[in-house]
Amino acid sequence: MSEQFDQGVAELGKQIDAKISSYFSSCVHCGLCAEACLFYTETGDPRYTPIYKLEPMKKLWRQQHTIRGKLAKALGLSKPLQEKDFADWEELVYDSCTLCGRCSMVCPVGNDITYMISKEREGFSRAGYAPEGLKGATQRALEIGSPMGVTLKTVMATLAHVEKDTGLSVPVDQQGADYMTLFSSMEVVNFPEYIESIARIFDAAGVSWTISSKAFEATNSGIQIGNSDNAAEIVGRVVTAAEELGVKYVISPECGHAYTSIRWAGPNLIGRPYRFKVIHILELLEQLKQQGRISFNGKTDEPVTFHDPCQIVRRGGVVQPQRDLLNGVAENFIEMTDHGVMNWCCGGGGGVSANERADELRAKSFDRKRRQIEETGVNTVVTACANCRMMLEDGIEENEMETTVIGLTELIADYLVTDTKDQPEVR
Amino acid sequence: MSTIDNDADLRKALKQLNHEQLRETGADFVASVLHLSSDKRVAHAVDVARNSDASDDELLAAYKSARVATVDSRTRCGADCNWEEQAAHFVARASAAMVAPEGVCKAADPSWQVVMSCRMAQNCALIAADDDSINDESENQYCIMNDYLNSH
Description:
The complex is a heterodimer. By secondary structure, chain A is mainly α. Chain A has helices spanning about 5-15, 20-25, 30-35, 40, 55-65, 65-75, 85-95, 100-105, 115-125, 130-145, 150-165, 185-190, 190-205, 220-225, 230-245, 255-270, 280-290, 310-315, 320-330, 360-365, 365-375, 385-400, 410-415, and strands at about 180, 210, 250, 275-280, 305, 380-385, 405. By secondary structure, chain B is an all-alpha fold. Chain B has seven helices and no strands. In chain B, helix 2 (about 20-30) packs antiparallel against helix 5 and helix 3 (about 40-50) packs antiparallel against helix 4. The longest helix of chain B has 19 residues, at about 110-130. The interface of A and B includes residues 185, 193, 387 and 404 of A.
């Protein structure tokens, strides 16, 4: 056995906290988590039962924390974890879990299986058993500041493009601004219209905002691969930048796991509360709408549905703002079945989309989303996560569906009243 | 004599055109950045858009093909971005919006999507070349539009 594998097993052991122990003790083997997991429902393969993905960790827990397990190990009836266990389970831990949290919602004894998988990933990544795509993304995030290799110079070039096209100034390193905005690299690379949209919306609403040259990236590959040290380093850059600028709020963009990372995991990772608040862009847009600081000059008559990004809705708790916003710009908003906190994942969260090895399985699991969309009978899907958007577009093309995907913030910007004479009175 | 030199006037001018004319100007916009893509599906979309005799079926087939090219060419989440390939992605995206039959492209303003995607393609090409010069694709587009309006 290699030294790195030993370190991985030691790390896995360290991750078994009181919650993990109680979860393993409480599991009643009902199998309900299987029916909640799209990798199981779309393949019928019992290996994709969420709790089964935790077998290596469960084995270690038994041997270290139960009398029967300790005895079995001492008598040689239970073998210690082998490299083969990690090699065999790597695909289950990374390729067939998007950390979507649907399994945790249905567990009758309240086990947070997603939390357990995250903890298991800590051991696997320390042992070197993680997908190459995620390893590369994490390395780039640490060295360059972006999992996609987006440098500050690139961001500035994109901002210059946005400024030229909108005629608006995009503030950078504005000391004392109210809001510091983060982007995901995906928005810089693939969806720069998101950046343009918020520039237009914030200008119309008179929002005091800035971008930091020290921390513009919202995503956190450390969370996805399962390396708390890396995750803390990445989130720490955002915290330092926000506190140096003295902003009141940090805005998490249209990216699912970025929100979980900065809003919920961040303070635990750095070991202290922030001196600012974190708000998701959808929460802020809804606030601006409620305050009368933005209004819309019409609605699309195209029937639309909404795909709920798991990390924003189920794990993040932002459920209603996107619906109120969408109803403000769409005449005919049709919900999918199992929408909101029980929505089905796009199949690419939790680092799965960065993992080429998982492409075939991901494509197969998209069948659930295909059925959900087709049941609504609409041709336009709105979402609020750049990664979900890519996964939806991939699945739509592969399935030759006549469907288009739109980002909610862009849709809002399309119907934004920009002439102050047309603005409703601010109360 | 048309003298468009800003986006507001460009938008206004585009709004005056019918769908066939938008396809013609869109083809001119995409052609000016076509060298950034080596995808035959994209070049074919420009050819179809320029063919005034193209049938609805041909337009739809070209649109679908360009849309697949768009999805094929973009950078996946978490991957190290290759800006030359990303430039080609935006050319493909522009070509799909350009050739889409009326009402098929769901962008709020498909003709503006063509304009913006061409500019993003040029932007990506400058990033790939580590070129700090200002992206002048918008000025180029004003010239293209002026030429089109003055010749029709």
